[in-house]
Amino acid sequence: MLDTVLRCVATLVVFLVFPLVIGQTEHKVMAHMQGRLGPMYAGGFHGWAQLVADGVKFAQKEDIVPAGADRRIFQLAPAVSLLPYLFVLLAIPIGPDGFVGQAIDAGLFFVLAVMGVGVIGKLMAGWASANKFSLLGGLRTAAQLMSYELPMVLAAASVAMAAGTLSLPGIVDAWQWYWLPWQIIGAFVFFTAGLAELQRPPFDMPIADSEIIFGAYTEYTGLRFAFFLLSEYVGILVVSGLTVVLFLGGWHGPLPDQLGWLWTILKTLALSFVVIWLRVTYPRLREDQLMRFAWTVLIPLALVQLALTGIIKVAIS
Q: Coiled-coil stretches, from where to where (predicted)?
């Protein structure tokens, strides 16, 4: 019982702390890359209190529910969007020798299925808001989810085929350094599809402020809006962590196995920086470009990766 409690508490601490670290990093990285002075002043040195100021701002805002909204679904949507990522973190291995919240035999299926539940929260928000812009954003979210879920699953299946297991710790144990050039296509497909499911730039058309205000989040204020933003940062942590575990060797690295957890965290934070970098670098895709990229680029690449994995496995055996 004590072991279970400690694992749950450790996962909860990661869930509450690391997304805030990623959020603070995004403030600073964007401030440097785009010359934004505002985030560099709050609190004095390097704007250390910017995240605190944002939290106080959201807490002070009035909580408004539109008169025509489905009140219960409207209020439940932020939690449905946020909490599934907590359960995914339970299954992501940080280090060897059982350094994971809960080892699951079919862990890969579990994390992919639960991540899909998080997107349902955004659909609920768009449908329940009684706002045409929110509804349009929710429908775009649904189309984007259906388009990018397939290449993501195919890329993950390639790694499972190579490792011969669906267990995430088992995949990391089976990983070899020569997988890096072999699985690089799958890594690109998985990471890109993950960004699209999170609606991160350049795949943020469902929340395009220039045409649909803020998509499914348009009618949300205060802490409920903050929960949607927090779910985005937790999603960055989850997608980066899964990419590290599946394609970059997890805790394998130059450090001893006893410090493998540190190597995993460093890789995850490096990929999180790449996510922020992409937001600053590329403009958003049009809706037709976004759909075309999934069906004509990512899915063929994922199928090529799957076929390559099958050929190499047969050749090795």
A: none
